[in-house]
Amino acid sequence: MKTVLFFLLLFYTFYLLIKYLEKKFLYKPIPCKQYDMIKHKPLQIILQKHVFIEKNNGQNKILIVFCHGNSGNLDMYSHFINRLAKEDFIDILCPEYPEFGITSPENERPLNRRNCIQNVMDAYFHVVQEKNFKYEQVFFFGFSLGTSIATQCVRLLEKDSTICGLVLINGFSSYKNLMTDMLGGFFTNMLPLSYSDFDTAKYAEELVIRKDPSFKVCLVHTMRDSLISWRHSKVLFDSFEGLHRKQILIRDGDHNLGPVQFFEQWYPSTALFLYSTSSASSAAAAATI
Fold first, then answer.
1. Is 281 helix (H, G, I), strand (E, B) or coil?
2. What is the pLDDT of residues 194-211, one digit of tens each?
3. Which pairs count as long-range contacts for 98-101, CB under 8 Å and 24+ apart, including other chains?
4. How far is CA 238 from the centre of its chain?
5. Distance between CA atoms of 157 and 159, rounded to whole angstroms?
6. pLDDT at 119 (0 to 100)
């Protein structure tokens, strides 16, 4: 009996250790006091930590919601945000996740997948409902881990007809597939990991069933990405079959800086692909080429 209890305790300890390491792998938040690196003005800090860049020119018909990756905070993505902010016909909402970024109240939600998604949803509702900003088109952009968060947010907001496009940059098809790439199939199947979390391909298949075929999905990936293989984007591309989709592969560029270094190789064609549903937006997008 003692032997059985010993092995049960050993297994439970091993399970807790794996879960701790898994959370450390999935989420690498770095708190900060303020977003000093985001230079574009004007911007507003809303809901204690999210960044909303609003142009105040009365012509903004497009909102981009940017869901960042698993490392750091929004400061680390300021180069990407600032580059998007140069497009004067769009507003940008950059939600932050629990425990990331600006120090939040002590009653902040625990850091997990569900609460990351809820933070994004809360920020979006704050802008479009509480602030009553009106947009003809809304596009969710996701980078790395944020691709899975953005896809599930769009899935949950399926009845919002203003959301008409999704851009996934250097994303993975599923957490399990990513771990298989890193550890191999044997260790991946042996470890008690949360394989149901961040199954982007599954969320994609659900979107195909529920969204109009005109809904647009653009997949961008740097082919020299050593962290997430570009083949994950190929899997996602297949999962979105039935929607209006486009895949852009960038020959060079690493995981984090590649999409910014080669921004002009993918964003102009992505913009034309997304914004073509509105003549006014198309003209604005064409002006960026």
1. helix
2. 777 899 999 999 999 999
3. 99/27, 99/29, 99/31, 100/29, 100/30, 100/31, 100/49, 100/72, 100/73, 100/74, 101/29, 101/31, 101/32, 101/35, 101/49, 101/73, 101/74, 101/75
4. 19
5. 6
6. 94
CA distances from 100 to 81, 122, 182 (A): 17, 16, 25
Q: Count up the domains in the chain and report the number.
A: 1
Domain that holds residue 76: 30-286
Residue 15, in any domain of the structure: no
pTM above 0.90, yes or no: no
What are the residues facing 165 on neighbouring strands? Answer: 139, 216
Which residue type occupies 194?
S
Q: Residues 78, 51: contact at Cβ < 8 Å?
A: no
pLDDT score recorded for residue 20: 72
In tens, the pLDDT along 222-260 reads 999 999 999 999 999 999 999 999 999 999 889 988 998
**Can you spell out the DSSP letters for 244-255?**
EEEEEEESS--S
User: Per-residue DSSP letters for 46-66?
Assistant: ETTTEEEE---SS---EEEEE
Q: Is residue 76 part of a domain?
A: yes
Is 7 domain-assigned? Answer: no
pLDDT in tens, 25-82: 888 998 887 776 666 556 677 767 888 888 765 566 899 999 999 988 888 888 888 8
* Domain-embedded: residue 3: no
CATH number for position 35: 3.40.50.1820
